[in-house]
Design goal:
By secondary structure, the protein is an alpha/beta fold. It has two domains: 5-102 and 226-265, D-Maltodextrin-Binding Protein, domain 2 (3-Layer(aba) Sandwich); 104-213, Periplasmic binding protein-like II (D-Maltodextrin-Binding Protein, domain 2, 3-Layer(aba) Sandwich). It has nine helices and twelve strands. Strands 1, 2, 3, 4, 6, 7, 8, 9, 11 and 12 form a ten-stranded mixed beta sheet that branches. β1, α2 and β2 form a beta-alpha-beta unit. α1 (5-17) crosses α2. 40% of the residues are buried.
Length: 268
């Protein structure tokens, strides 16, 4: 499906130019947590802010799913964002989970690698350190520079649960650990020969080559791995403004925005 670049550009332009200044709103409502899908959340916030004047939705930089859970659970934040399921212990503490988008878990490379597709076997071998040069998989004669995430990262956990060969995969020590999705993306954009992974959005295709795996693009139904992005709150601290934004995130307008970024809307 063709991407509506005008819609995406217009929404992100509002964010970049500050056109949705908090001066036009009564209060701010930050949505804290994971870096996965942050562009989608900011676009949804921008669209919501265009019509709501009582509150301004903001989406701060990532503190991880765990950080969002801690902030909402402690009462220091009203609304959080996560890219993993809640544990039984977290649910028992009163956290409520509201999914709104499914994000494919994509692999992407610096264009210098000269590859566009890998098999699941090749992918696992690269991350295990058994394949170390792109020429071994039909690419450039260039050292592979592996970018990974910390063990608790939500995308890595999704990959371990769904990508063939990843459940018990020991990742190579010759790799860089990125502490956020944004750091992983920027590292791959800047470093020749680099490969990384993270949640897919259309903006990922700017400056990197998003790989097909076994011939399947992340947006295709047969692609093997994806994560769910969700809001979290507690009934004790949730506000009418937070409820209004969650309701908006399930609206037809919001679903259109989610699709424009390459993700799939999820019904509550």
């Amino acid at each position: 499906m063709p991407v509506n670049f005008a819609l995406r550009t217009a929404v992100l332009s509002l964010l970049a130019t500050g056109a949705l200044s908090s001066l036009a709103h009564g209060t701010e409502l930050p949505v804290v947590g994971t870096g996965d899908g942050i562009e989608i959340l900011r676009a949804l916030g921008a669209a919501f802010n265009k019509t709501e004047t009582a509150v301004e939705i903001t989406v701060p930089p990532s503190i991880g799913s765990g950080g969002g859970i801690a902030a909402v659970g402690s009462g220091s934040a009203t609304l959080g964002r996560v890219a993993r399921n809640l544990t039984d212990a977290e649910v028992s503490r009163g956290l409520v989970y509201t999914p709104f988008a499914r994000l494919p878990s994509a692999f992407f490379v610096h264009p210098s690698a000269k590859v566009t597709n890998l098999s699941t076997r090749e992918l696992a071998a690269i991350y295990a350190g058994k394949i170390t040069n792109w020429k071994e998989v039909g690419g450039a004669d260039l050292r592979i520079r592996v970018v990974r995430r910390e063990d608790a990262d939500s995308t890595l956990q999704v990959l371990r649960g769904s990508m063939p060969g990843w459940q018990d995969l020991v990742l190579t020590e010759r790799s860089k650990t990125a502490t956020s999705t944004q750091e992983a993306i920027e590292t791959v954009r800047l470093v020749e020969g680099a490969i990384g992974f993270g949640p897919f959005t259309r903006t990922l295709e700017q400056g990197t080559t998003v790989l097909t795996i076994d011939g399947h693009h992340p947006t295709e139904p047969r692609y093997p791995s994806s994560a769910v992005l969700a809001f979290i709150h507690t009934d004790a601290t949730v506000t009418p403004d937070a409820k209004a934004f969650m309701t908006f995130a399930a609206s037809p307008q919001a679903k259109t925005i989610i699709k424009e970024f390459g993700a799939v809307p999820v019904a509550h």
